[in-house]
Amino acid sequence: MFATLPSSPGWVSAKAVPAYLSRRRERFNVSRELFETLAASLWTYWKLAMRVAYYGSKGKNRQEDYMAALKAWDSSAAWDNGSQIQIQISRSKRLLPETTHTTLDDAQQAVVDELDTQVEDLRDRADTTAWKQFYDSLYGPKRNEIHGLLFWLDQELNLAEQVRLVRWWRQLSGKTPDSVPGGRPVATVRRSD
Which residues is 185 bridged to in the sheet? Predict the structure, then answer.
């Protein structure tokens, strides 16, 4: 199946390629899981804060909804979600260089700690204007900050490149379908036997 590549400097034996790609695939799977879990947890946290801020901005007209939003914010599920964020940050220490992990940790704290602080500062006040400002900041700058953090992490984990390597390996090993869902053809890699 694999042709032996010339053994001159710069060439690697074709037998080493499957082991290398297997390690890359394992790293990709771990990286993808970290990224997806962190993204889901951050957006869930953001959405909980959005809900509290939205109903807080409505004042006495939506007091019951506001209390329900605060209850959800304080729930065990919300605390578990916050724990998932921290777990993924800890896991990233094994995947990322120290400086990258530190940047990710700082960015995560800027998102999560700021949301916690804002909700706690506003929760006992009946200031609908302050809640509306918080809601607007969540919908605009904070949302963009989370998008930016996740885009940056995707680049650091190099997920797009890893996807290309996995596809390439599957094509070489004959494990790639001729098309993907939607009927689009899959690009093929030429092999010489």
Answer: 179
| pTM to 2 decimal places | 0.69
H helix and E strand count, the chain: 7, 0
Angle value at C-alpha 19, between 18 and 21, nearest 5 degrees: 65
Q: Which of 11, 132, 2 is nearest to 62 (CA)?
A: 132
The Cβ of residue 101 has, within 10 Å, a number of other Cβ atoms equal to: 18
**Tokens encoding 130:** 């302050």
Q: What is the pLDDT of residues 113-172, one digit of tens each?
A: 888 888 999 988 778 899 999 999 998 888 888 888 888 888 777 765 655 655 665 666
Average pLDDT, the chain: 76
Q: Write down all domains in the chain, each with its CATH number in brackets.
A: 28-163 (1.20.120)
Instruction: Locate 68 and state its tokens.
Output: 């329900």
